[in-house]
Amino acid sequence: MTPSRHSPISASRWQSWVRKLAVDLLYWRNVKQSGGVFSSVLLLLFSLTQFSVVSVGAYLALAALSATISFRIYKSVLQAVQKTDEGHPFKSFLEVEIALSQDQIGKYADKIMLYSNTCMKELRRLFLVQDLVDSLKFAVLMWLLTYVGALFNGLTLLILGEAPSRTPCCAQIDQYVGLIRTQVNSVVGK
């Protein structure tokens, strides 16, 4: 049940379908489906502790590409052997319209503006301690996130835009960057 230009689905109906799907996953109504989703998420999180986001993303893209290329070749060989003319196996997905209209872009821009304004007001309220209990809860959450951040390697933190604490690894990187600057300056003649 995916939206396409042939079977338009209203936004509210689409959102209710997604909510129902999420609730079904969280309540484990279909054990195989929930187990697959949550074990995939756990594998992804474990992979992020071992590799950078770029590596994990590249491996996921390669796995998906390998699966689709293999399936396409399999269907092509099957069509050639059976002498059928079924066409491209992903034709229905290729025909789905995915371009955003100006109205949709405007609607999403308005939502992003609303969410960012709300987020800034809430952060101002938390950091300027309007309510002591809420600010303490936020501090505990941030403290717990430091442990999650410790699980990621340094490159992942750099990619995510986090500023890693000064570690011996960063000192080595700074040393090598200094050597590179010295070499570049000597070549350029500064």
TrEMBL record:
Domain of life assignment: Eukaryota
Annotated localization: Endoplasmic reticulum membrane
GO cellular component terms, semicolon-separated: endoplasmic reticulum membrane; neuron projection; postsynaptic density
Pfam families documented for this protein: Reticulon (PF02453)
Domain called Reticulon: residue spans: 22-161
GO biological process: brain development; endoplasmic reticulum tubular network formation; neuron differentiation
Membrane topology label: Multi-pass membrane protein
Transmembrane segments annotated in the record for this chain: 37-65, 138-160
Keyword entries, A-Z: Endoplasmic reticulum, Membrane, Transmembrane, Transmembrane helix
Name assigned to this protein: Reticulon
Organism listed in the record: Gadus morhua (Atlantic cod)
Gene field: RTN1
